[in-house]
Amino acid sequence: MRIQTKRVRVIHKAELHPSGTPGIEALTLVSNQHFPRHTHDQFGIGVIAFGAQRSWSAVGTVEASAGDVIMVNPGEVHDGVPLAGGVRGWQMIYLDPKIVEQDMACEFDGKLEIVDPVAQDSILVERFAHLFALITAARPDGFAIEENLLQSLVSVARAHGSVRGPNFGPPPHIRKAVERLNSAPEAPVTLAELAALCGVSRFQLLRGFARHIGITPHAYLMQRRVRLARQLLRHGQTPSDAAAHAGFADQSHMTRAFVRQLGVTPSRYRAAVALS
């Protein structure tokens, strides 16, 4: 007897909106795809428009549904799985950490850390909607964006933030591995080389890295290469050149990693940032 399996139709639409403001990116997504564990080098603040998803976060597994605010810190590992295999839609604003640090200097004596990956906050939802509309307007008003961004960040900081102390972070040997991968993500490296650099065994490094960072050293390296590729694309390099200079085997390899992490292809990202 032949068992027939139902094929699930893949739905994934992502639009990166030109913001006109350096350090700010706005993204609209509609997807039933499962995003694997990954990180961003920016603060992320968004709102679920419809549907629902389950995510792994720094505080454990969380669920978000329509009307919920979703937030993530730079470098924080997270994923995203649609509930019941359904389609969910959401809007995100990604902010360069320097912008957040600048705006929050008067509020926090230290580095802001978002502590609530999901929140029900009607005031923040309203402010986010207004800010998103300003950022994605045909003629963005820089003054209005600056003012509303500050108001939104203050709301996040007061209701959903804390300050990271000087001892925040992984142990020294893991920091050393992270620093090596951050310093030259395009350069080839092996687990054995990293372990020797850190003075631990390969298994100790692998286990400690996954425990403190949330993903394996190889997965972290792929994240860093995607970030480097983004910078190269923003500076006008072609996808093929960016792939080569970021350490990917080829352009296809970069495209797969790019879509898995950001939801858009390198070509679409390059086209959008060219309009910013």
Protein described:
With 276 residues, the chain is α+β, with helices and mostly antiparallel strands. It has two domains: 12-164, Jelly Rolls; 172-274, Orthogonal Bundle (Arc Repressor Mutant, subunit A). Helix content is 43%, strand content 24%. It contains ten helices and twelve strands. It has helices at 97-104, 122-135, 142-160, 172-183, 191-198, 202-213, 217-234, 239-245, 251-262, 266-274, and strands at 12-17, 24-31, 35-38, 43-50, 52-57, 60-65, 69-72, 78-82, 88-95, 111-114, 118-119, 161-164. The strands form three sheets. A six-stranded antiparallel β-sheet has the order 1-2-9-4-7-11. It has a four-stranded antiparallel β-sheet with strand order 3-8-5-6. A hairpin with a 2-residue loop joins strand 5 and strand 6 (60-65).
How would the blueprint of this fold be written?
Blueprint: E1 12-17, E2 24-31, E3 35-38, E4 43-50, E5 52-57, E6 60-65, E7 69-72, E8 78-82, E9 88-95, H1 97-104, E10 111-114, E11 118-119, H2 122-135, H3 142-160, E12 161-164, H4 172-183, H5 191-198, H6 202-213, H7 217-234, H8 239-245, H9 251-262, H10 266-274
Antiparallel strand pairs: 1-2, 2-9, 3-8, 4-7, 4-9, 5-6, 5-8, 7-11, 10-12
Helix pairs in contact: 2-3, 4-5, 4-7, 5-6, 7-8, 7-9, 7-10
List keywords for this structure.
276 residues, alpha+beta, Jelly Rolls, Arc Repressor Mutant, subunit A, 2 domains, six-stranded antiparallel sheet, four-stranded antiparallel sheet, 12 strands, globular
Helical run tally: 10
User: Which overall shape is indicated by the principal axes computed on the Cα atoms?
Assistant: globular
Q: What is the terminal separation in angstroms? A: 57 Å
Structural class: alpha+beta
The tally of domains stands at: 2
The biggest sheet amounts to: 6 strands, antiparallel
In the CATH classification, which architecture of the largest domain applies?
A: Sandwich
% residues in beta strands: 15-25%
Strand tally is 12
Instruction: Give the % helix.
Output: 40-55%
| Mean of all residue-level pLDDT scores | 88
- CATH names the topology of the largest domain as Jelly Rolls
Unreliable spans are none
CATH superfamily of the largest domain: Regulatory protein AraC
Which H/E pattern describes the elements? EEEEEEEEEHEEHHEHHHHHHH
Rg calculated over all Cα atoms:
19 Å
Sheet with most strands: strand arrangement: 1-2-9-4-7-11
CATH class of the largest domain: Mainly Beta
